[in-house]
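Q: what does this look like with LD2JLWAY bound?
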Amino acid sequence: MIALSVNLNKIALIRNSREGNYPDVVAHGRVCLEAGAQGLTVHPRPDQRHIRPDDVRALAELCRSREEAEFNVEGNPFAGPLKDYPGLMPLVLETKPDQCTLVPDSNDQLTSDHGFDLERDGARLEPLIAQLKDANIRVSLFMDPEPSQIKLAKEVGADRIELYTGPYAEAVKHQSDELESIFAAHCAAAEQACQLGLGVNAGHDLNLINLPRYRTLPGLQEVSIGHALTVDAISMGLENAVTAYLNCLAGN
Ligand SMILES: CC(=O)[C@@H](O)[C@H](O)COP(=O)(O)O
Ligand SMILES: NCC(=O)COP(=O)(O)O
């Protein structure tokens, strides 16, 4: 089974466009879990444009209260602190999610658009990965499908990698000639990760059009999906959208 972790960033983005708590991020997280999603993901950013530290705290409680629900917090451990954003490491060590996915985004990035360069960042990531693992938090690294980089992900102590699927999604959208080689590189990276004993997650711009193929990736354990699922929920309703993604992942 490939686990679906619903990313709630975009629910928080709508909430933050007004004062108050509407829509309620935690209530929508609960709907996703009740509809069968195996987990919830958030990617707080230092500018708090969507997920805020208190959302992370409340969603950690929600997931802890439900057996089997996995909580995944993503972000750059080197970004922040900024104003009342404490920084990823303090927030994650306080809230103790099941998984922390480290992502190399700059503070002002629109969205994630590349994986780690571990030749550059590996040495400073290594002690942070050890600290998270000491706190019983599984560590995943956001990665491009580059063989030399996947090898380094194992060497710095990661438990899993999350393959960055943005270029794959773009290639599907534009029916690009490069689709075959991009997907082949993802398959090879996933196989390499499995051989090294790393788990395999994937995410970014996955949707109901590009997921039927991506779900065949060797060893794929979890996808985190937010943007497209939230957009689909506008027309389908959130519960039906979660069901549609679960069916898609199951190959139905
Ligand atoms: C790492 C990744 O691909 C996602 O977490 C994505 O970047 C979500 O962040 P935004 O919702 O801020 O685009
Ligand atoms: N890790 C990817 C994620 O959480 C969701 O990305 P997207 O579906 O919002 O592009």
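Strands lie at 3-7, 39-42, 70-75, 99-102, 138-143, 160-164, 199-203, 220-225. Residues 7, 41, 43, 74, 162, 203-206, 224-228 surround LD2JLWAY (ligand 2) (CB under 6 Å).
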